[in-house]
Amino acid sequence: MLDGNQHVKMKATRVFPVFYVLLHSLVIASCDWKVGGVPEGTASQLSKPRNHLQGKELQIVAGHFPPPIVISRNSSGQVIGYSGVLVHQLLYLSQSLKFTYKIFPAAVNTNGVKINGTWNGIIGTLLREEADLGLVPVAISLERYQAIDFCGLVGGDFTGLLVKYPTSAVSYTATIDVFTIGTWFGFIICATVIAGFYLILTFMAKKLLESLALVERIAANARVVANGGGSRFGQWSQHLLLFTWSLVAFVFVKTYTSTLTSHYLSTIYKSPEINTFADLAASTTYKATVGVGSIQEIDLLMAKTGDLKRVADNLSKCPDCRKFSLDELALPVLEKDHYVAITPTKVGRALMQKYSSERGHCRLTMAKELFSWKPMYFAVPKSSPYQEEINRESLWFHAAGLHDYWYFKLEKFPRNCQLNYNNKGVVTKRSSRSRLKLQQFYLPFLILFSGFMLAIVQFCRERFIHSR
After folding, report:
1. Sequence-ordered list of residues with C-beta below 8 angstroms from that of 284, at least 6 positions apart, any chain
2. pTM of the model
C-alpha cells in the first residue's frame, strides 16, 4: 500500500495544503520550543509521542456500509473478506502504531439504534466492551455522543435522494428549440421581405406592359407576358429574387440540419419528479425510505420547521419506510412506483453501481439537491485510552493524501448514471453513440417538401393555365 509514497506525498500538497502546512508549522514550533536551549546532541533524548497501542491486539467491529467499508460474504453467508477505504486506513494505523487486530461483523448492521434504553449495532457492541473500535463512518449526533466518543476523522458525506433513473424522450419541439426565437423571427422577416419584393416587381412589370399596350408591337409582347413570359426587366428581377430566396433557404436548411445533428448527439431525459426535498415535502403520492438510526433519520427527527419537518411527518405515517439494510432502501425505488430513498451520497452511488444492468443501463440515480454535509469518524468507547494515537495518525493519513488516493481508487460507481442539469433544469447527456431518428428532422424535410410543392404548382400554372 505504501510503495507509491512519493506519488502520494505530491498529491497531499494539493488536496490538504492547509492541514499539511499547519501540522508542519506546529511540529517545527514544538521542536523549537523543546530543543531551544538544549545542548547539542541531546535532541535525540526528547520524549517521542506516546503509543499505548504498540503490541496490543484490538477487537474491531465492522458494518457493511459500501463503498467506505464492504463486508464480502460467500453463498453460505460466511464472511470472506473486508475492503474499502476504511480498511486501508486501519492497515495504515496498525502499521504506524504497531498493533494487530481482529475484525468481526456487527450482529445488527447499523451504527446503532437505541431501543428501550439499549443500543444495538456498532454502538451497542462498544458499550458492552466487546470491541475497541468501530470500523464504520459515524456522524455525530447528541444521543450518540452521550454513548460513545468519536475518534479519527474518516471523511464526510452529503445527504441525497436516490431516485429512479428517468427514461430518455424524443422531444418533438426540440427541432424548433434548436434556434432561438430571434433567429426564427429573423428568418420569417427575411422570407416576407423577399416575397414582398417579388410581388412588387411582378406588379410593376405588369403595369409597365399595360401602359405600352397602345403600341402594337409592345401589345403583342404584352400577350406573351400574360402567358407567362415577360420583358427582360420582369424576368431578370424575378429570377434574381428567386435565386436570393433559394440561397437563403439553402443556407438556413444546411445550418439548421448541422445544428440539429449536433443537438441530438446529446440525449434528453425527463427530470425526475422528485428532484429536491421541497418536491418530496409537497408530494402527496411519493414515499421515502430511510435507514433506521442513520444520521439522515436523526436529521429528520430533529427538524422543527420547513421541508424536512414535512418529510418527517410523512415518514411517521409510513411505518414500513424505515429500513435496516441498504438493499431494503433501494428495492422499493426499483420495484415500486412513487418511492425515493434518503441516503448518504456515497451509499446512493454504491447502490447505483450494484443495481445497474449488466449492459450498463442505469436504473438508479441521485437527485439534483444535496443537503447537510456531515463529517464522520471511527467510534470508540468513552473509556478508550487510544484516542490520542488514533486521532494523530488518522490526521496524518488524510494530510498525506492517502485517504483521497484510496477513496478515488476504490470508489466504483457508474458515473454515466449521474444526471447533469443545465441552467434551465433540463437533463442532457452527450454521447457519440446516439443514433439520429427520422422524426427528429421533420421540420427541415417539411421546408424542402413545401418548396418542391410550390415549384410544382407554379410549373402547372404556367404550363396548363397561362398557355391557353
Report:
1. none
2. 0.62
